[in-house]
Design goal:
The protein is of the alpha/beta class and 243 residues long. The chain has 8 helices and 9 strands. The protein folds into 2 domains: 1-66 and 145-243, P-loop containing nucleotide triphosphate hydrolases (Rossmann fold, 3-Layer(aba) Sandwich), CATH 3.40.50; 80-143, no CATH class. 41% of the residues are buried.
Length: 243
Amino acid sequence: MPVVLENLGKRFGGGAPVLDDVNATIAQGEFVALLGASGCGKSTLLNIMAGLERPTSGALEVPSDGAAFMFQDASLFPWLTARGNIELALQLADKSSTKVSRRARATELLELVHLGGAGDKRPHELSGGMRQRVALARSLAQDRQLLLMDEPFAALDAITRDLLHDELERIWKETGRTIVFVTHNVREAVRLGQRVLLLSSRPGRVVAEWDVTEEHRTDAGRAGELTGVITRRLREEIRRHAK
């Protein structure tokens, strides 16, 4: 099922609108990067798509089973092992599941994110990148078609972030999830997204979009060119907001 946003708006109390007239359609299995300046409403839009916030106006369609959510902070339970954190998500998703089935599925998910040997480690024993891999596995444990990711790699160093980009792309292709990935990093948006949507500064609305072709993925020059085009458009939005 596609994700459809129609004339979506959001304001809090009597304040100025955070989002206004947001329109977008995201195909099933598509990877869309959502880009915009800080404070433009990217996270609010994700919260609405996840059902954590209600829109003030407009309408949206999302898969009937809702969405899985991955945040910037891994937010793992420190007293549980990596496997235990995933097993808990599995238990919450299906209360009729057995301990044996949950352990087997958690092991599969750890293998999927290349952490098969780290299941018995607690969060403090893992690097930042490893904790985010556990958080990704925990999100996948919810077994929902739509995965919402709110700047999940922003706090990581550049090398770790690049490695996780490769891992996320592999997992997306293996699982066929629909992914909406929020970032303020243009290079990251071009690296991961099949399509990049740009939100204007407040009120946020989709003001531009770009298709990322296979040529962009295989040709560093073309990728750099597109990154430059998007960066200039983003700077225009930031300057407009600063006036």
